[in-house]
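Form 7-S
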Amino acid sequence: MIHRDWRDPQAYAFCDRLTSAQWAWEFLRRNPEYQRQWREFHDTWQVLEAAYGKPPNRDFCAWKNDPRAWVPASECEGGDCRIDQDKVLIECALGARWGFHKFPPDPQDDDPVGEGRLSWRPQEEAPLPRADELPNEAWKNDETMALVFDLSMPLKPQLEQARRQLQMESASRRRQGRLVPKKVSSLREHWKSLLTLLDAEAAGELGAWRQRHPEMELEPALEEAHRLVRGGYLSLLRIPG
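Output:
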């Protein structure tokens, strides 16, 4: 189980130096399913090392012929792992499943990103939402803006006009104080509060956390924290410093 003493601000002082890639790890490492899968992977890895040795004395030819060292390629869909006869090495498959390259880090590891032992796979941009498929309240707020395009007309001039309008509206809302651009520096304290919330939950002390954070509604904050743990951590990679 990964959690710090949520009551101690110094336990989270390291957060002041984190990049978006490091923040993503902080949320992923608290994912119970990642913890479970890593333990299973680690157990298998230890069995393989006991049988075939460690570098530089590893018998890799024997290792690669052991079915325990592989998973079906179907378990690595969407990744860029090397496929060998419809199978993928377990270390590559586990990393791809959770969105990163390199050897899967132990959830107890404090900073595999900063030490260069974890790098995130490039994130594809999600398609933009269509206003006609969303309820009105989903896009009528200070962070969003909907424009109408005439698909029967040439798109290039419309896209250029849309770019200008979006830039002007964004600048106007920032001047009015209605829009705060998402940056790691401006979101750091909020994310830190979510980490303390997750750690308080793990310690069975949500009630005490609520008393210490009356400025935050517990249920929405817990929902956001769980979303980041379950997969939303990858969205943090797009947020600039």
